[in-house]
Design goal:
Two copies of one chain form a homodimer.
Chain A lengths: L1 E2 L7 E5 L4 H11 L3 E6 L13 E2 L2 E2 H6 L3 E6 L4 H12 L3 E4 L5 H4 L4 H7 L4 E6 L14 H7 L2 H4 L14 H24 L3 E6 H8 L1 H8 L18 E6 L2 E6 L3 H10 L14 H6 L1 H12 L4 H10 L4 E3 L3 H6 L1 H6 L2 E6 L3 E6 L4 E2 L3 E2 L12 H7 L4 H9 L3 E2 L8
Parallel strand pairs in A: 1-16, 2-3, 2-7, 3-6, 7-8, 8-9
Antiparallel strand pairs in A: 4-5, 6-17, 10-11, 11-12, 13-14
Chain lengths: ~400, ~400
């Protein structure tokens, strides 16, 4: 069972590649919008070529492009420009993340488009934002993690800075742009007018670091790297098992004593470095090393059972293969099959919310490059003869067997 | 200048603490909703007590609770329960993250509330989700980072796993719940009926790891820790300077040769380990160490200038004090002052989008505990005599000088 999102009947045109805009538009598609992805000739979205591939298809592309249609069109050719203009006349939303200024240079600026479609919501995503000396520079997720302070804070206190190995700036920007679309649609119902919504990786990044940044702005210390730990609480973090790691968190001395018994290290209770949280924080490295020597004598499974019995808050430090097999993950039903034209069913992760107990409905699996070129252009009133000419002139492409998926 | 969000006129009641629900409701407030935060007697939201404090006020609380009103009310007392019922009669949205089942046990289940207010949108946030063996267990951000595979993937390949030092599960859940509210409001306009929206840290976490999880589900390798690096590309990551780190990324051999010249290490060109990306990936640690020895001879500023001149994509690995002083960050205007009753203006990070070039408008700064108790209850029709009795009976509290902010 599934539930239909509220964006059914809303047409979104995506002119975007990579992660942020595809993820944001996938969210809109999950909520029911018709999302038409306009891709370039030959290769399409860059992410279609990113490793790892499964049977020749990019997993990254698969994970970011369900519930979309694919139209391949060269809008720099005159006839293609005309066709895109006609498509955009029928659109409620345009979302784009081309190089700053590139789409405007091709004739599709917000100012131009609003003249003919004043109800259009024009969403523009950049790396560094709409103003400032870097506004025209390209950027990508990891670079903005570095720029915004995330890399400097992440990783072991004794080692090098680390990256968050997820596209948190890209995906976060996708979330914010989808919120911007919902807001603009609601405003349009009130005013009849579209809007120019701008988002960027840097602005998203500043929102992510908002709390610690406000702490520094208020005169507090600059956060340092602490591995898996927390500034004011020890022990709290990942501790080694013989076959992996376990995360545990101790908020009181009572819980701490229960932990020491559970890991058969009651003697540590007499060490003054362990006396209370203040002492443990002061002796962080020593305390964590002593506890780690004790936890490493057990397997993950043994530790999890012992911490459970001792009522010490904990979690396995799961690797992704364990996540896939986890009973709780399975029970939630968020990992779902979706059909793909060449792969059969692929497993996707649905948007993480339920409505009256049901996940959002799927429209279709990730499209092959150009799978919907003809159908979409026909639906906006471009007749068969013109479509044939566009095909013959190489201005549009449809999917052909053996071509890149 | 600023722009009014589209949720003006929507009343949200927040019964939540800590990060996820407060952040989600702050987003709704940024978009113009009236957000009434119902807090418990004496202490209010737990985050009001979290370190670090600035002049006795929690920075975390300040960062998550602008554009809200604070009402202090004990809904477990009969008169308080009655008052909350009257408040919820006037609400469009209720968002809560109490222990699973706790609010229902107090009489405020979705099933009860929809009987008297069928237009109510009831949003419930938990740690592990609405189903499965862990559905009643408490959880928090770092624990779900561990559970979902993020901790195992983060940190140096030679060291211990690390945490993402930001509340990405909490804040992500806040983003998803605010999307759920926009969707439910739109559906309500279509159907006249409210909805039961459920979100959780675990479901949010699965969406964050969606791409690599799909890779593993498709039979690919389980991602390993790579510090600041990337699996298929070397060099790409943080490299040491004499006074910090610089992030750089090299996508071609041409760019690699420019890098070697820029860091005065052209001799590395002749080392077979550096021959091309495939060789560099195979010799990751050696290559990174050799390059790091060269970059460490320069200051951050020198490296940034040299990489700029050589057109090698790069970024400073900024610490948060540098972020605050950064010209691009200042130019974006996203860090803004907001008034606070005891602190004067505090600097907040506005929601990361602009609409027709303007950020969302502020309604008010983070409220003192109980600052709006009387005004809000009066606004739903509770008369002065009854408010006085509620105060006298200790069922509600207003802010008093010297009390916790």
């Amino acid at each position: 069972m599934s539930v239909q999102g509220s964006l059914a009947g809303i047409r979104v045109v995506e002119i975007g590649t990579s992660v942020a805009v595809p993820f944001g538009c996938q969210i809109l598609g999950d909520f029911g919008a018709e999302v038409i992805k306009v891709e370039r000739l030959g290769t399409g979205d860059e992410a279609r070529m990113w490793a790892p591939l499964t049977e020749g298809v990019s997993v990254t592309f698969l994970s970011l492009n369900r519930n979309k249609k694919s139209v391949v069109l060269n809008y720099k050719a005159d006839e293609g420009k005309q066709a895109l203009e006609e498509l955009l006349q029928t659109a409620d939303v345009l979302v784009q993340n081309l190089r700053p200024g590139a789409l405007a240079a091709a004739g599709f600026s917000w100012e131009n488009l609003r003249e003919t479609n004043p109800r259009l919501i024009y969403v523009e995503m950049t790396g560094y934002g709409h103003a400032g000396p870097r506004r025209e520079q390209p950027a990508y997720d990891a670079m903005l993690q570095a720029y915004s302070g995330v890399v400097a804070m992440t990783g072991s206190d004794e080692g090098e800075p680390a990256r968050v190995p997820l596209s948190m700036m890209d995906m976060g920007t996708g979330l914010w742009l989808s919120l911007g679309v919902f807001d603009a649609l609601r405003r349009r119902e009130q005013t009849g007018e579209g809007a120019h919504v701008q988002v960027s990786l840097l602005q998203t990044a500043l929102a992510w670091v908002g709390t610690p940044l406000m702490g520094v702005a208020a005169g507090g210390p600059v956060p340092q790297r602490l591995g898996s730990g927390f500034r004011g609480n020890v022990p709290n973090g990942a501790f080694p098992a013989s076959d992996g790691y376990v995360f545990l968190s101790v908020g009181s001395n009572d819980a701490f004593y229960r932990l020491l018994d559970a890991i058969e290290a009651p003697h540590l209770r007499d060490d003054p470095a362990f006396e209370n949280n203040v002492a443990r924080v002061s002796n962080r490295q020593y305390v964590n090393a002593q506890l780690g020597a004790a936890t490493a004598k057990f397997t993950m499974q043994e530790l999890l059972e012992r911490l459970d019995a001792a009522q010490v808050p904990h979690s396995a430090v799961n690797t992704l293969d364990r996540v896939l097999e986890d009973e709780q993950v399975k029970a939630l039903g968020q990992l779902q099959p979706i059909p793909h034209a060449t792969l059969g069913d692929v497993t996707i992760v649905n948007s993480p919310l339920t409505i009256d107990g049901e996940y959002l409905a799927h429209q279709n699996g990730p499209p092959l490059l150009g799978a919907d070129t003809v159908d979409v252009l026909a639906s906006v009133g471009i007749d068969e003869g013109r479509i044939d000419r566009l095909l013959a002139d190489g201005v549009i492409e449809t999917h052909t067997e053996g071509a890149r998926a």
